[in-house]
Amino acid sequence: IGAQKDRVLTVEEWLQKWETGAAAFHKEQGHPLLQKYLDVLLNGRSGLRIFFPLCGKAVDMKRLADMGHSIIGVDVSEQALKEFFADQSLPYCEEPVPGISGAKKLQSTSGNICLYCCSIYDLSSAIVGKFDGVWDRGALVAVNPCDRQRYVSLMISLMEKNSSYLLVTVLYDPNKHKGPPFYVPESEVKSLFG
C-alpha cells in the first residue's frame, strides 16, 4: 500500500469530479450490496436514523427514506446534494448550520432527509445526533489514507450502541492504481474498527 500511503486528494479535486461529470463512483440505480444486506443494516428495526457519509447523490437515500427511515448525509459537493433533490423530485429547504462556518443543511420538506454540505470532519454528534445505522459504500475508501483513523473515530462517535455499519471496500493491487478508491485491506478495517 506504499504507493497510496501518502496520497492526498483536496476538496477542490473532489468538487472537480462532480463538476466535470467524473463522478464514476455514483450509481444511477440502488447499490446491489445494500439490497443484498439491507436486513443486516435494519436488523428487524423500523424508523431508524441512517447515516450516509460522503453521500454524493446516492439514490439509496430516497429508497430508505421511503421505507420510513430518517436519512442524514454529508458531502462537500453542494452540486451533488442539489442534484440528489432534483433527480428525486424532492422539494427541500436550505439553511446555514450553526457552529460550522459556510456549511449548509439541505432538508427535504417532508423532513426525513437531511443533507449537510460541509467537511465530514466538521460534524459531531452535537450537530447531527447519533445513528442506528451507517451505509458506508464509498467513504472509507475515499478518505485520504492519512485521515482513516480520524474518520473511523468520528464514525464510532456517531453510532448508537446497537448500530449496524455496512462497509463496502474494493480489492485490487494498490501498486497498479493510485486511488481513489483507496485500497483498505480487511486487516486494516479490523484494526481501525476493532
Q: Provide the low-confidence segments as ranges.
A: none
Quick one: CATH superfamily? Vaccinia Virus protein VP39
Query: Under the CATH scheme, which architecture would be assigned?
Result: 3-Layer(aba) Sandwich
Task: Give the amount of beta strand, in percent.
Answer: 15-25%
Instruction: Characterize the main sheet.
Output: 7 strands, mixed
Number of domains: 1
In whole angstroms, the N-to-C terminal distance is: 20 Å
Number of DSSP E strands: 7
Alpha-beta content class = alpha/beta
CATH topology assignment = Rossmann fold
Fraction of residues in H or I helices: 25-40%
Shape by Cα distribution: globular
Instruction: Give the ordered list of helices and strands.
Output: HHHEHEHEEEHEHEH
CATH uppermost class: Alpha Beta
Task: Note the total helix count.
Answer: 8
Compute the average pLDDT. 91
Strand order of the largest sheet: 3-4-5-2-1-6-7
GO molecular function: thiopurine S-methyltransferase activity
InterPro entries: SAM-dependent_MTases_sf (IPR029063), Thiopurine_S-MeTrfase (IPR025835), TPMT (IPR008854)
Protein name: thiopurine S-methyltransferase
EC number: 2.1.1.67
What does this molecule look like?
This protein is an alpha/beta fold and 194 residues long. It has one domain (2-22, 35-193): Vaccinia Virus protein VP39 (Rossmann fold). 32% of the residues lie in helices and 21% in strands. Strands 3-4-5-2-1-6-7 form a seven-stranded mixed sheet, with helices on both faces. Strand 4 and strand 5 form a beta hairpin. The protein is globular. The two termini are 20 Å apart. The mean pLDDT is 91.
